Amino acid sequence: MVDIATRVHNHNWKIDPIVRSLIDTDFYKLLMCQSVFRNKPETTVTFSLINRSTSVRLADLIDEGELREQLDHVRSLSLSRGESTWLRGNMFYGKRQMFRPDFMEWFEALRLPPYHLEKRDGQYELTFEGSWPEVMLWEIPALAVLMELRSRAVLKGMGKFELQVLYARAMTRLWEKIERLKGLETLKIADFGTRRRHSFLWQDWCVQAMQEGLGQTFIGTSNCRIAMKRDIEAIGTNAHELPMVYSALAESDAELAQAPYQVLADWHEEHDGNLRIILPDTYGTEGFLRNAPDWLTTWTGIRIDSGDPAQGAETAIRWWKARGEDPTQKLVIFSDGLDVEKIEELHRQFHGRVKVSFGWGTMLTNDFRGLAGDRLAPFSLVCKAVSANGRPTVKLSDNPNKAMGPPAEIARYKRVFGVGEQKAVEVVV
Amino acid sequence: MVDIATRVHNHNWKIDPIVRSLIDTDFYKLLMCQSVFRNKPETTVTFSLINRSTSVRLADLIDEGELREQLDHVRSLSLSRGESTWLRGNMFYGKRQMFRPDFMEWFEALRLPPYHLEKRDGQYELTFEGSWPEVMLWEIPALAVLMELRSRAVLKGMGKFELQVLYARAMTRLWEKIERLKGLETLKIADFGTRRRHSFLWQDWCVQAMQEGLGQTFIGTSNCRIAMKRDIEAIGTNAHELPMVYSALAESDAELAQAPYQVLADWHEEHDGNLRIILPDTYGTEGFLRNAPDWLTTWTGIRIDSGDPAQGAETAIRWWKARGEDPTQKLVIFSDGLDVEKIEELHRQFHGRVKVSFGWGTMLTNDFRGLAGDRLAPFSLVCKAVSANGRPTVKLSDNPNKAMGPPAEIARYKRVFGVGEQKAVEVVV
Question: Residue limits of the Nicotinate/nicotinamide phosphoribosyltransferase domain (chains A, B) (predicted)?
Fold first, then answer.
């Protein structure tokens, strides 16, 4: 039986929207947004899209009109009643009313601010400028729109069965990964793959496959929309944009040196438990931990997001021990460039020594390498805060290939944070 | 949007029928049925299911009640108006009105006759007895029902995503085969996989994948229902049951020696072109060709269905040359135990020397080897005429592993047809 209504409905879409909900975004964006809304609501920021894979010429692949339609569609979204109810009523990490009523009222009225789009050298220059709590919510949908439009551009020329086999291959590949992960006792793993997913529907499939294949080992997804739809835990804490913007706002080198700790002091007040996770690498993990105030050692854990992950975890373990903490009671979250081999290796190395958890991103939700030549392979697209109140932001991280900011400012930050020699690690995604 | 009507409809099925149409069968069964209906309508035959893969204990796997439901459902089927119109109006091999009005009237009124079912030693004994033109139409649906019930029994315990990945793997495997076949210029290939298919829906998928992947190289399917549904050519000529029954009816050794030629003499009257295909191996290809009347050399081609296929084709080429025919104008159809490697090899060897065509069966529509352990691997199930008017039938073929019949009768047939030493070839499917 043909469902005529569905068919007519589908044919009447002006576009096939990529982002259909304001909460089709990472949970930590909302947590950070609430923190910013409370602590720095007046800050003006600029976010900018940066394609680190320059060989992928997005402006040649993606039609500007289609891109504008998708971005305009995102601007038309607002929080639905059901989404608002879910955010207000849900229990996150065992806590009710994670989102305060004043924040929810603001969020319910929110529409995303305008974007600025230009083509240059085969790439899109896409920037967002305005109030920090508003602009910051563009990051994930902007990335998801560009990633999926690129997928669609490549898929456009394929036949129906060629397409079906393409997805069959991707499904098989993911399932083989899941079957390998099944072998790891005590594994805890979450989906962190929203931003660079192949597509929304594919991410949704991946999450469900993880649910069925891994059971309790799969602890949740960073994507609020999918968490709501599939009735699973939304996962996340905080990201580099907080120390980056706080640091850009610092009036002196002394204030700059304290900025990353000020971020966590503000965070400390609001959150506890699994939300008290240190992200130490913005300006070098070693220096950050060396100079950290004692109250940070009581935090639940640490997230390793750049540099050599094993080395980062060893550094954290040494730090906890030096400060009199028991590492076996601490959580280490790995979230940078993970795939099955790396997960197995890190799990083997750290299981039992600390509590380990994995935030698996692009290679979970976009491993189409080699499936249409390499035309669908994931690539390194980010959307970052590049300035705050007119001043440039800086990120160093533990990998110089991930550093961002004007060279003079990078030099100043390296001096202030005492960052020495760093080992470069190739950035694939 | 949920289509409530479809859902209610699906939930209201008493069973999920495997065979939903009397023409969900091989085209050659209908061609042969018409010939039998005209030439031997009074013959009483017994068809019997034979599982040559005794390690697959069908009666342990498949519930008897479910099997009876499916077989009863087949007995409830009759030719629909649309199917009748398609058979009456279609052009097969360039000829209209392939099916005569008296046959169509009989077929429109037909219901399949009763079956007899018993369990013995972990196997089902399933037999059909009655008028030849009626009983013969049980062969394909009986096999398809048993094959699919076995698939369902294995799939029953699997999760939703495990299932999806299973099919993803099978799709990927078939597509890789299709991509290899794309490399063969001038290939002509058809689906002959109805009888031992994994399931109806899977065969339908395979046919569509062949259509998209191979284009004109894919010349059609033996399955009438799918040919009708997908608007492609129905393919087929004749099978062993004709010489087997004719031979069983022979009153003397002299009549027996002539029986296989009498079959083709009856066929010759009715058909021409692509339907004049010799199936020479029922009682040994060598002897059959040696003693064949001259009018058979003018036939369009030969089908190789047992023994070493390259050797069979070489025998045919030598025979045509010896009788003054030009082999390059003749068609050789390979249809026994084919998979991609064998197809490539035979194509390489015979392309240009004769017209070559392939009838690809079980390894097209049921290659689930290794996908659920080996619990879904295809196996060698056949449904054959075992007696006619109370006398046993005999098949020798070019492979002693495919021989059938009482030993004394096999010895007599070998003597009458001058069959010497034969090379045994393992029968997988």
Answer: 188-421
